Amino acid sequence: MKSLISYFGCGKVYAKSKSNTVFDFRVTKFSDLIEKVIPFFDKYSIVGVKYHDYEDFKRVAELMKNGAHLTSEGLDLIRLIKKGINKRRKFEPSSI
Fold first, then answer.
1. H-helix or E-strand containing 24?
2. pLDDT on residue 91
3. Which of 52, 78, 76, 53 is nearest to 65 (CA)?
4. Among the four 13, 25, 29, 43, which has the fewest Cβ within 10 Å?
5. Domains in the chain: how many in total?
6. pTM, rounded to two decimals
7. What are the tens digits of pLDDT across the range 10-49?
8. What range does the domain containing 74 cover?
């Protein structure tokens, strides 16, 4: 996980469990997500059901980049998209 920090030049690694066996890599700077992380996953596509979660994540990032999160309508749309993320969707290879 720490090599992700080196590769992307951003982010931090946090222990997710007390036993220090599960970790999260978090990028909190929005410009790092837009300029580094999203282009990486656009180039090296995620395969499987997580692809749909990534597409939703990217859609929310684009909405925020365009300022949609600053309006009540935009914020409602972002919340609606977020509700669908990580909901055990079925994998549909034809949608990739």
1. strand 23-26
2. 57
3. 78
4. 43
5. 1
6. 0.79
7. 999 998 888 888 999 999 999 999 999 999 999 999 998 8
8. 45-90
